[in-house]
């Protein structure tokens, strides 16, 4: 089966255009639901708002599950200052400095979108000089609203209030050299890959060896993404980003196979099965351990579920910042998943 890379990129861009920080994922989830249904999969939403899309397999007595998460990092309005700016809390991980200078939308409870920018209170070097310009934490970071506001009352009159979501621009770009750059490749790129896997089976009139559930979780960045696993599921793969950088084995051209994260080692036999699939099919891969990382697989294991677990995915540089991977890594990830679903 041939991987349609344009389909992956188009789906990825579409999902990235729909803001979905943790707790605000309904619109993006419903868009993914439509795409799975377009390829003939049965879908349902869990009580928590996650999506399960099911692809019937040759063996319906034992099921497998592949997950990716639609929720991203983001922010939420914590307070409104007297001069009409917003203090905010982060949703998920990431450093305060990683979003400095980014444009954003504030999305009100009524759904109104208002533009703004994230800046420190000491942004102007001409006022504060170079020495004070390095501190970045919750005490100095603000959202500057792109409206004529000068007081808290002005902000309230716009419809902005405590608890509104703040969603950053993604700045998605695909370069001629094959690099893919964006905020929130983690994990909307993986969601797009799973939709492409579904398309491959559907349009080629093929079934995977085992009935397969594609679980699109919506609270992974918060640590409680997967709940309500179909009862016949015996093993699961969380498709999430690999981590590229100092001290890591992963690179932007290979699929990353996780051996251990901050919560747990992954099952050795399952990991070896994935490595064997990669080697037998000339798929470039790297095995890696991650220091400050967990996936839907280890979240499920932590719940005490009797499901074997693994994790793999496209390798991403500058995770939880302005992220980047390469088309090679995307293709290798899709290929290992396709082959996994076709073996006993």
- How many DSSP H or I helices? 8
Number of domains: 2
CATH superfamily of the largest domain: Zn peptidases
What is the percent of helical residues?
A: 25-40%
Report the major sheet. Answer: 9 strands, mixed
Order of helices and strands: HHEEEEEEEHEHEEEHEEEEHEHEEH
Overall CATH class of the largest domain: Alpha Beta
CATH architecture of the largest domain: 3-Layer(aba) Sandwich
The global form is globular
Low-pLDDT residue spans? none
Here the CATH topology of the largest domain equals Aminopeptidase
Number of beta strands: 18
Mind telling me the C-alpha Rg? 21 Å
Mean pLDDT: 95
- Straight-line N-to-C gap: 18 Å
Beta-strand fraction estimate: 25-35%
Structural class of the secondary elements?
Answer: alpha/beta
Give a structural overview:
There is one protein chain. The protein has eight helices and 18 strands. It is α/β, with parallel strands linked by helices. The chain has two domains: 227 residues, Zn peptidases (Aminopeptidase); 95 residues, Elongation Factor Tu (Ef-tu), domain 3 (Beta Barrel), CATH 2.40.30. Strands 1, 2, 3, 12, 13, 14, 15, 16 and 17 form a nine-stranded mixed beta sheet that branches. The protein has a six-stranded antiparallel beta sheet with strand order 5-4-9-6-7-8, with no helix packed on it. The chain has a three-stranded antiparallel beta sheet with strand order 10-11-18. Strand 6 and strand 7 form a beta hairpin.
């Amino acid at each position: 089966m041939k991987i349609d890379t344009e389909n992956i990129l188009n789906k990825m861009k579409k999902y990235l255009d729909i803001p979905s920080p943790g707790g605000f994922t309904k619109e993006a989830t419903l868009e993914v639901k439509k795409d799975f249904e377009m390829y003939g999969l049965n879908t349902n939403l869990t009580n928590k708002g996650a999506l399960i899309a099911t692809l019937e397999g040759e063996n319906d007595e034992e099921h497998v599950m592949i997950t990716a998460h639609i929720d991203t990092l983001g922010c939420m309005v914590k307070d409104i200052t007297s001069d009409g700016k917003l203090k905010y809390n982060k949703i998920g991980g990431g450093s305060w400095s990683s979003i400095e200078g980014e444009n954003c939308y504030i999305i009100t409870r009524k759904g109104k979108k208002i533009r703004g920018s994230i800046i420190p209170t000491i942004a102007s070097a001409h006022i504060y000089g170079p020495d004070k310009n390095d501190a970045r934490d919750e005490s100095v970071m603000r959202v500057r609203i792109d409206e004529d506001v000068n007081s808290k009352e002005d902000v309230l009159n716009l419809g902005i209030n405590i608890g509104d979501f703040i969603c950053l621009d993604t700045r998605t770009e695909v370069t001629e050299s094959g690099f893919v750059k964006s905020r929130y490749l983690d994990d909307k790129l993986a969601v797009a890959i799973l939709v492409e896997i579904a398309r491959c089976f559907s349009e080629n009139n093929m079934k995977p060896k085992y009935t397969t559930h594609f679980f699109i979780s919506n609270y992974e960045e918060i640590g409680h993404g997967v709940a309500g696993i179909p009862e016949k599921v015996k093993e699961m793969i969380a498709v999430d980003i690999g981590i590229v950088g100092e001290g890591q084995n992963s690179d932007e051209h290979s699929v990353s196979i996780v051996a251990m994260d901050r919560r747990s080692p992954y099952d050795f036999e399952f990991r070896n099965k994935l490595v064997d699939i990669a080697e037998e099919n000339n798929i470039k891969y790297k095995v890696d351990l991650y220091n400050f990382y967990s996936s839907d697989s280890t979240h499920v294991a932590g719940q005490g579920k009797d499901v074997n677990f693994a994790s793999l995915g496209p390798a991403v540089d500058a995770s939880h910042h302005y992220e980047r991977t390469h088309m090679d890594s995307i293709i290798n990830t899709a290929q290992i998943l396709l082959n996994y679903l076709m073996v006993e």
